[in-house]
Amino acid sequence: MDIINTPQERELLSGGVLSGKVRVPGDKSISHRALLFGAIADGITTVEGMLPAEDPISTAKCLRAMGPKISPIDHDGNPVQIQGVGLDGLEEPERILDCGNSGTTMRLLMGMLVGQQNRHFVLTGDQSLRHRPMERVSRPLKIMGGKVTGRSEGNFAPLAIQGSSLHGAVIGTPVASAQVKSALLLASLTAQGPTTVIEPSHSRDHSERMLRAFGADLQVGGEMGRHIIVRPGARLKGQKVVVPGDISSAAFWLVAGALLTGSDLTIENVGLNPTRTGILEVMEKMGAKIEVLTQEEIAGEPVGTLRVRSGPLKPFSIGGEIIPRLVDEVPILTVAACFCDGESKITGASELRVKETDRLTVMSRQLKRMGANIEEHSDGLIIYGGKTLKGASLDSETDHRVAMSLGIAALMAEGNSTLLQSEAAAVSYPNFWKDLERLRH
Ligand code: S3P
């Protein structure tokens, strides 16, 4: 059976040291893609290391409603099997497809379903997802001939998709978003003629890597490798996918291990795809003691073991092309900044405002409850670090990465804290609180 979580207020203890080994759960982005691509491939796809969390479970549920058979996603680490139905084999679902809290599920499904001719699909999600912008996907899909409607002219779910015949196009995306890019790549698999997608800067490239491994005719070229060209015609073939651990989940341990005096953590099986390692580059500049103990390539993705030890950290300034490469790590970097003496600056991060919550506002609001000095700007934050933070009553405001970031901030505060809606962590890291308890001594 898939897993269901209940609301929890949690006590967060301050202090202690973190030591030992942790193996972070599977990469969320790669888990979604393995399910989606497996569903439209011919034959069986086997996925090892699938993330057993709410978001990929939402993807699996939506896909099952359209025909592909997918074995249960459980916590025992059993490989997940997907019986693909081919590029044009999805059935019209009788019911609304519920994407839960998952933007990746909704946006990638939009791209996948828009070219399923003569079938109709309705997508919705939870309260947070129904307020996240979808026009960034529906608009370029319309350029390819896609038919998507929704509230606010196709911007908000519930969305209705009438599958139709698509034509290839050259499309420049206005934001460096892997979700937008991936939706277009999926749509282009069944379009008439080639499609070129051009991003303003590099976002994560898991789709490109995995689609090619599944047999798609996809090339990356152009200036700085920012043009992705898909030629339709090739069928996808079921694969064995090995999902590395999620660097976005490892980031909580990297920051906690670097901050909490006396800590020494080994983090195993961390995905080290260069489009995701912005956090390591920033932490290196901050003077964090992080070593890459091993590194290898597994199933087309670089993977390694990291060791982090505590030590003094310097404030940082980030903006520009690095933001897409650490977009999900901004909340935990905001926490890190609170504990570095001096001013840290985050710019060019307005995308944070349209994540599961407005993460710039929510992180400032919650950390201010602990006494942090943070200035909010339209596209970022200035954090005046080095002040002692005090334990406080906190709230994840339903956001998984906020929940875990606050869990780490609370370790560093003077006095214990409480966290409302701590169960949100299960969206991407179901055992986060258990791992924290186990690693804290
Ligand atoms: C994701 C892309 C990013 C990221 C999200 C997962 C993906 O979103 O924040 O957690 O799997 O493609 P954007 O594409 O909106 O930047």
In a nutshell, what does this entry contain?
By secondary structure, the protein is an alpha/beta fold. The chain contains 13 helices and 23 strands. Strand 12 and strand 13 form a beta hairpin.
CATH topology of the largest domain: UDP-n-acetylglucosamine1-carboxyvinyl-transferase, Chain
> How much of the polypeptide forms β-strand, as a percent range?
25-35%
What Rg, in angstroms, do the CA atoms define?
A: 21 Å
CATH homologous superfamily designation of the largest domain? Enolpyruvate transferase domain
Uncertain segments are none
> Which CATH C-level class of the largest domain is it?
Alpha Beta
Shape: globular
Mean pLDDT across all amino acids: 96
Bound molecules: shikimate-3-phosphate
In total, how many beta strands?
23
Oligomerization category of the chains in this entry? single chain
Q: Which structural class do the helices and strands define? A: alpha/beta
Q: Biggest sheet, open or closed, and with what strands and sense?
A: 4 strands, mixed
Distance between the termini: 34 Å
Q: What does this entry look like structurally?
A:
With 441 residues, the chain is of the alpha/beta class. The chain folds into two domains: 4-25 and 244-439, Enolpyruvate transferase domain (UDP-n-acetylglucosamine1-carboxyvinyl-transferase, Chain, Alpha-beta prism), CATH 3.65.10; 28-242, UDP-n-acetylglucosamine1-carboxyvinyl-transferase, Chain, CATH 3.65.10.10. It is built from 13 helices and 23 strands. It has helices at 28-39, 54-64, 103-113, 135-143, 151-154, 178-188, 206-213, 247-259, 278-285, 330-338, 359-369, 400-412, 432-439; strands at residues 10-12, 19-23, 42-48, 69-70, 80-85, 97-98, 120-124, 148-150, 156-162, 170-172, 195-198, 217-221, 227-231, 240-242, 264-271, 289-298, 301-309, 317-318, 342-346, 373-377, 380-385, 393-395, 417-420. The strands form six sheets. The chain has a four-stranded mixed β-sheet. Strands 4-5-3-14 form a four-stranded mixed β-sheet, covered by helices on one side. The chain has a four-stranded mixed β-sheet with strand order 6-7-9-8. The chain is globular, with a radius of gyration of 21 Å. Shikimate-3-phosphate (S3P) is lined by residues 29, 32, 104, 177-179, 182, 203-204, 327-328, 351.
